[in-house]
Amino acid sequence: MQALRRTAPFSLPIRILQFGQGNFMRGFFDWQIDLLNERSGLDAGVVIVRPRGGRGDALLDVQDGLYTTLIRGIDERGEEVKQYRTIRCVQREIDIASMYGDYLEQAKNPSLRFITSNTTEAGITVNDNDRYEDAPPSTFPAKLARLLHERFRHFNGAKDKGVVLLPCELIDDNGEALRAAVLHFARLWQLEDAFITWIAAACTFCSTLVDRIVTGYPAGEEERIAAELGAEDRFLVAAEYFYLFVIKGPAWLADELKLAGANLNIRLVDDIAPYKRRKVGILNGGHTTLVPVALMAGLEAVGEAVADEQVGGFLRAALDDEIIPALGMDRAELQAFAEDVLRRFRNPYIRHRLDAIALNSWPKFAVRVMPQLLRHIDMHGAPPERLTLALAATMALYRGDRIRLADDEASLRWFRDAWAAHDAGELSLQAMVRGWLANVALWGRDLNAAPGLTDATTRALEVITQHGMREALARI
Fold first, then answer.
1. Is 54 left (phi over 0), alpha (psi -120 to 50) or beta?
2. How do residues 12-65 score in pLDDT, each as one tens digit?
């Protein structure tokens, strides 16, 4: 079967430079650009830059920039969705290690308006060993600073040749972090003050929040997918139905991106923080609440857990009655987001193993769940039943007889010793709970001071250890 290729000449003006060729950007960012081209006439071509380069993988150019997205999941009507789309917006790919001259030439393109990136959480960093004359420098911000300076010089500092930067790295305030890193290199390399002024006046750094699970090529489905497509696509990426792109930026950006009428889940906002709290509290917090309870109930995967009448009911009630009220935001909007989350958890095309999500459970619990648990205590004067049960279930999970645990060694050692002492009759469950809630390094304070939390957690842990998780759920 022949490879996916263009059958007729097709080109778009290069308006976007993208650092990162991975599955996520192709299944999230480029997919949205392709839809904006179709629905709103954005008319934007993308050049992908491999920021590390030199890995020997084939460039997307072997398929003329074409690739397929396969969107699968549960839609708003609760129905299964399966959608193929050929993505046409990518015009070429540049390997920066072997094509550095071509990379710098992109700075001279008068049509270039947007720069986006996904260089992993560790990508926005500085290395003072990076030099201006390196070809290329080692870090992404140094490469970007070099490109922007080339553009500044080529267009003599013209303000209308500034760019909008949309970093997609999963760190807080990624736009501000990227701006600071670029300016760091401008000063390190002693570039002219006019360039620094141009960065401030002509370039817009937007912080973003991105949300979509992109799983890449579906292993084991190659023959069936090729038959359905009528071609072989080495670069196909599968992704879930849900997506969200939140951009903190000026109002005029909506016109530049031609968002009006596109019907895409792209939010242009003044403040990303509420979206971050919503995601951490409901999506991440829902995961962290569900996992120990489901594992202790004998389940293996997220979809299986949500479908389980008892465990799935526990999660829904935890979201509706304990997590959402504690977030203190618009309830209708939070409930709609929670329904999206539950549909994502039920996605039959993504098997999320509970034991994989259980990695490093304690730091996750401290960030994702404990703020809502403590807020509930502040609001009602007593601990929430379900979040407290999740806390106790996590302690029971760290007995180590359900799954192979992965956490920091200090936490693992603490529970190993505590459970051994309990089994030897030397440590009561209440003393164990009291000792763990006193872990100021984890929680930021001694949680034994939270009204009722020590006793409620102890009671829940007693039921789990003596009667099992199913009985503990039945007693709520």
1. left
2. 999 999 999 999 999 999 999 999 999 999 999 999 999 876 555 778 989 999
Q: How far apart are CA 209 and CA 456, in angstroms?
A: 36
How many Å apart are CA 225 and CA 319, to the nearest integer?
37
Q: Where in 182-222 does DSSP place strands (E)?
A: 204-205, 207-211, 214-216
Listed residue (325, 453, 323) closest to 382, CA to CA = 453
Peptide bond into 141 cis (omega under 30): no
* CB of 179 closer than 8 Å to CB of 205: yes
Place of tokens 């790295």: 169
Residues in CB range of 473: below 8 A, 6 or more apart? 293, 297, 310, 311, 314, 389
How many Å apart are CA 124 and CA 137, to the nearest integer? Answer: 13
DSSP annotation string for 215-231: EES-TT-HHHHHHHHTS
Q: How far is CA 92 from the centre of its chain?
A: 26
Whether 192 and 154 have beta carbons less than 8 Å apart is answered as no
Tokens of 240: 């879930």
Residue with tokens 């060993």: 129
- Those residues of the chain that have pLDDT short of 70 are 1, 8-9, 53-56
| Contact criterion met (CB below 8 Å) for 215 and 71 | no
Burial-class residue 255 by CB neighbours within 10 Å (0-12, 13-18, 19+).
exposed
Contact 378, 410 (CB under 8 A): no
The Cβ of residue 133 has, within 10 Å, a number of other Cβ atoms equal to 7
DSSP annotation of 57 reads P
pLDDT digits (tens, 9 = 90+) for 197-214: 999 999 999 999 999 999
Consecutive H or E run containing 313: helix 309-318
Query: DSSP character for 124?
Result: S
| Residue 111 contacts residue 102 (beta carbons within 8 Å) | no
Task: Name the 3-class secondary structure at 193.
Answer: helix
Neighbouring C-beta atoms of residue 236, cutoff 10 Å: 26
Please count the other Cβ atoms lying within 10 Å of the Cβ belonging to residue 128.
10
Query: Please, what sign has the CA dihedral across residues 60, 63, 64, 69?
Result: negative
Q: Please say whether the dihedral angle defined by the alpha carbons of residues 269, 273, 274 and 279, taken in this order, is positive or negative.
A: positive
